[in-house]
Please model this.
Amino acid sequence: MNAISKDVPTAPALGSAGSRLAALNEWVAQVAALTRPDRIQWCDGSDAENAALIERMLADGTLEKLNEQTHPGSYLHRSHPDDVARVEHLTFVCTRSPEDAGPNNHWMAPAEAHAKMDALYAGCMRGRTLYVIPYCMGPIDSPLSRCGVEITDSPYVVANMRIMTRMGAPALARIEREGAFVRGLHSIGELDPERRFIMHFPEELTIKSFGSGYGGNALLGKKCHALRIASHQARSEGWLAEHMLILGIENPQGETHYVAAAFPSACGKTNLAMLIPPQGYRDAGWKVWTVGDDICWMRPGADGRLYAINPEAGFFGVAPGTSSKSNPNALATIQHDTIFTNVGVTADSQPWWEGLDNGQTPVTDWRGNPYDPAKGPAAHPNSRFTVSAKQCPSYSDKAEDAQGVPISAIVFGGRRASLVPLVFEARDWTHGVLVGAAMGSETTAAATGAVGVMRRDPMAMKPFCGYNFADYFSHWLSFDGAQAQLPKVFHVNWFRKGDDGKFLWPGFGDNLRVLEWMIGRVKGEAGAVETPIGHLPAPTDLNLDGVSLSDEAQAKLFGFDHAGWSAEFASIGGYLDEYGPRMPQALKDEQQRIAAALAR
Ligand code: GTP
Ligand code: SPV
Ligand code: MN
Model:
């Protein structure tokens, strides 16, 4: 026993002996005995607590104050230059059986992983404060929400979790009521890439992360809990935890349809979630409402439809490319009370990134060095803003609804420079699951490693599914029951390129044209052409008023390349086979049905 473990402060006010917080108190005591912090702080999520944390971080250089006139309440954080993105090669799913983690995950035996992590944690918080962060993923009163507690030695993580989750006293009260919570232990360690691991123990509802202070590696409520642990939990409880944005599209008649869309990291979820309609649509009365920009938890309601909540309370969005032209809602959202990570700064302390296009120039780059264009961009390509969703002008009031929103359409999409048309619709649910399972995309800066490499990223969950993809696809297929009123499934590609290497589709606000067609299909009103890969719109099925497309763009965005798709389906068949006999036969049959149609 050491001194700390004897007088570990218990959960304030609620932690009386015999309460349902006993397990939490005991875990905190065990962690303190292992990590040996100088102090323990239970976070209540209050403004005063946050203000004190910010003061401390300004004093030690963790944060820099930005221009109070232009960006009130906003700060810059520079992460360690070797710690700027998720690390998929160091991320593990530690199930008892390796087959349960599947070929889609790195696996380690739970006992080995615990031993490895606990060795790293030994004494790692000496001289530091251990923060206990109770949080709730989802509206605090929603039956779809789930709670967790993150223990961390990073005040930056505390400040981010306060924005990204419902953190503090109300979450602790819910944990006391329910008893159950996901345990996440995080230490930045020495930020040494050689001593960095992100471990998940879905069977124990436990996460252990060491050596990184960045994004999805460190804000454990996000990818670790809300996707890897939650997807595993969702499978046994009959729901879905997905890497999807959720938006509402209100037509001029005042009818709102909700759409959930899965695009891989840095492939346009935040942008689509905050879409501003083109002028003609605005004049006609169309509105778009943001429910979530990254994660979606869905379950069937009593009427058989899927109902979705956004488990997050804030946005951890990609900064580069965000401008008053591309995403005015995001830009308005981040004018105040925002934490910027790894962006550049101007002479008068305003945040700056490539594509901001506000006429200013950076003087300092994301590393804190004088900006020199010859040495790379001012902002890191994966630089981010952390901001409360409530600050977003298009934030939907339904986002706080405990019952969630009914989903009319599910959209899959990736970055595909060639082959894949602007949009197509799956014939039915099984085909839709195959469309999701076969998704491919070029890699981006959101994870370390090469950028622009085509890889299969089923349902944008390759880095985030907490169990075997074959079982995951079976789980998706299982939603198709007699009572089900399932959404229609679509695939989009905003990133098709022409021979000149430029994007053929204007994207951003104009993506509403594609969403309108989808809703038309849901309502049985919009036309389409049947092909072996699904239903494609003819250019005349979309409202393209005010958009000028070249002949090449028309052909490639709305065309169907028979030979190209035959080759693609051979590759998809090979991909499904990588999962062996666990891959559901229904999905293999579907792949073969389409491959056969393409061969005709
Ligand atoms: P994560 O937060 O990593 O999950 O990313 P995300 O999916 O939310 O991606 P985000 O919306 O931040 O977009 C990433 C990049 O894609 C930015 O550089 C955007 O400018 C770009 N982008 C988004 N939508 C479009 C589009 O419709 N067309 C084109 N060409 N680029 C887009
Ligand atoms: C992603 O990579 O999909 C993100 C950023 O949303 S992170 O939180 O780092 O996972
Ligand atoms: Mn994401």
Remarks:
- DSSP finds 18 helices and 30 strands in the chain.
- The longest helix spans residues 221-237.
- The domain at 3-63+87-237 is CATH 3.40.449.10 (Phosphoenolpyruvate Carboxykinase; domain 1).
